[in-house]
Amino acid sequence: MIFLKTEDEIERMRAANQLVAATLAEVGRAVAPGISTAQLNRLADEFIRDHGAIPTFLGFPNPYGSPFPGSICTSVNEVVVHGVPSEDVVLKDGDIISVDCGTLLDGYNGDSCYTFQVGEVAEDVRQLLRTTKEALYLGIGQAVAGHRIGDISYAVQTHCEAQGYGVVREFVGHGIGRDMHEDPQVPNYGRRGQGKQIKNGLCIAIEPMITMGTYEVYMSEDKWSIYTRDSRPAAHFEHTIAIHHGKVDILSSFEEIEVLEAQRNQTL
Ligand code: MG
Ligand code: MG
Predict the structure, then answer these.
(1) Ligand nearest to the CA of 103
(2) What are the start-end ranges of the H helices in 31-61?
């Protein structure tokens, strides 16, 4: 069942998502060769709690009875999503790291992800990041009242496949609100004109997960980290949006991160 949000609820969700944005920027500032993903996790956890929110991912259940052990997901290189923060995973020059963050603030959820470059990243990998981010905004561009979820899916899929990239099938975007995952599902592949109609008050997370090679993935022994089958890198960008007065309203933000990237000469 889809829960359409009131204006007041959308404002609460904006606050939760702005905190996610600030957390991602805080983590991004610390991303550098030599730091472990466990250190990034501690930083995010503290930042979220200092701002009166709860890191939603911590303790999130999976079907295998292993609650997620981190407050953010840290997915490095060939890890697509749900990377578990670890003292043993230390970033090095040329890596990429997708940091996915969720917060619960005042009863409402925020959810956003950004793939950061560590030092100097190879141009073919930068192209993967650029395309995935473009696909996110192309998907968002389709999120207007009267369109359908399939219009978003189609825009993401065609943009990425045109470059020969893989579109992950097993994980999808989602409705969001009081729960982190609500209806409807928002796949990154699909057909124009299909799926649920987009209406005012709809709040969804759009999150292309795009691979350099095959779109096939597998789960690691930790029952969380999802790897590409061919060990080639993957990118993940996510915004939470609301449909407001017929148009899209992006509730999360990459603004602070993009300033940071410009300072580091990492603009995509
Ligand atoms: Mg997310
Ligand atoms: Mg999400």
Answers:
(1) 1
(2) 37-50
Residues near ion ligand 1 (CB < 5 Å) are 100, 111, 113, 238
Ligand nearest to the CA of 24: 1
* Residue corresponding to tokens 């022994």: 221
Domains located in the chain, CATH noted: 7-267 (3.90.230.10)
CA distances from 37 to 93, 225, 242, 264 (A): 14, 13, 31, 20
How confident is the model over 160-219, as pLDDT tens digits?
A: 999 999 999 999 999 999 999 999 999 999 999 999 999 999 999 999 999 999 999 999
pLDDT tens digits, 151-162:
999 999 999 999
Token output for 60: 């999130």
CB 200 within 8 A of CB 10: no
Query: 60: CA distance to ligand 2 center in Å?
Result: 13
**Chain length of the chain:** 268
Distance CA 113, CA 98 (A): 7
The H or E element that residue 126 is part of is: helix 123-141
Q: Which of 258, 240, 176, 224 lies closest to 80, judged by CA?
A: 224
- H or E stretch including 117? strand 108-117
Task: Give the phi and the psi of residue 131 in degrees, each rounded to 5.
Answer: -65, -40
Per-residue model confidence as pLDDT tens digits over 80-129: 999 999 999 999 999 999 999 999 999 999 999 999 999 999 999 999 99
3-state secondary structure of 148: strand
Q: Are 26 and 44 in contact (CB under 8 A)?
A: yes
